[in-house]
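Quiz preparation item.
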């Protein structure tokens, strides 16, 4: 279908953001969705500290936990830019969310990944301090954050170190390849540099020794937790995201793919209030709450 008119209008008015990305406006606190409690904390690991933000939906003794990784470089993302998304997911699903303020610089993607893996492992080991337990923890991320989230899931399965109940991946980057015009993925050729994404920003992944999600062995993908993947029709990464969903399925894993026609990378953060923005949170809530409905993809 044609790209949504409000998106086309936005880029006509802000042509520089076709490559630099949609500018994220940070809302004043009084304009953000209300939630029972939000607390900034510092997670202490062996040799460094990392900020986290904890979202508590209501007062209760036990919570399902969700570890969240913000959208990173492509979306000018940080823990503040993803605040509204975390508030909405926590409030709607009843999950306590631990949002990780990981470093967005991917010049050393290996270090970034290892930091995120160690932080996640620490959160899981301390699940009781967040009112949760290790058997009821899920993971979620958007864009680069989604890539980091599924890399953590994959590495934990390889090490047999921990596992998740569910994983949610909003428009992940799943192929660590620099090709655009020569790419096997048509969406890269058609949409790079047109709607807020420049593939040059994935050089950090491509120059690392990390194995891309799409190149992960079938035997590992067969053990994946129940997975929800979002793709967007006009996103350069849509074809590889859908290929990753298909590979999980053919490997024997359980996966749900939702394609947002007429939309672009970052739909869960950009253009708040639009129909797809709200639909994305609705489907996420249903997935986490085991109340899934039929979804047209």
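Solution:
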């Amino acid at each position: 279908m044609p790209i949504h008119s409000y998106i086309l209008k936005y880029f006509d008015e802000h042509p520089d953001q076709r490559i630099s990305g949609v500018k994220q406006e940070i809302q004043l606190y009084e304009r953000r969705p209300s939630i029972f409690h939000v607390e900034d904390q510092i997670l202490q690991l062996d040799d460094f500290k990392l900020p986290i933000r904890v979202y508590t939906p209501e007062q209760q003794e036990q919570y399902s936990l969700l570890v969240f990784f913000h959208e990173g470089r492509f979306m000018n993302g940080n823990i503040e830019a993803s605040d509204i998304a975390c508030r909405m997911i926590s409030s709607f699903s009843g999950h306590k969310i631990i949002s990780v303020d990981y470093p967005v610089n991917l010049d050393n993607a290996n270090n970034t990944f290892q930091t995120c893996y160690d932080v996640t492992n620490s959160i899981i080991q301390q699940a009781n301090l967040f009112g949760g337990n290790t058997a009821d923890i899920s993971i979620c991320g958007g864009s680069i954050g989604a890539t980091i989230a599924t890399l953590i899931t994959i590495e934990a399965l390889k090490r047999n170190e921990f596992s998740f109940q569910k994983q949610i991946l909003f428009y992940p980057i799943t192929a660590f390849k620099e090709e655009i015009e020569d790419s096997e993925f048509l969406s890269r050729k058609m949409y790079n540099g047109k709607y807020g994404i420049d593939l040059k920003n994935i050089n950090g992944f491509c120059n690392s020794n990390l194995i891309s999600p799409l190149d992960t062995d079938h035997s590992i993908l067969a053990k994946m937790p129940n997975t929800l993947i979002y793709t967007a029709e006009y996103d350069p990464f849509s074809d590889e995201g859908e290929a990753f969903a298909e590979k999980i399925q053919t490997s024997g894993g359980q996966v749900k793919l939702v394609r947002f026609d007429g939309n672009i990378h970052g739909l869960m953060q950009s253009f708040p209030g639009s129909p797809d923005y709200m639909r994305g949170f609705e489907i996420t809530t249903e997935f986490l709450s085991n109340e899934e409905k039929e979804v047209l993809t």
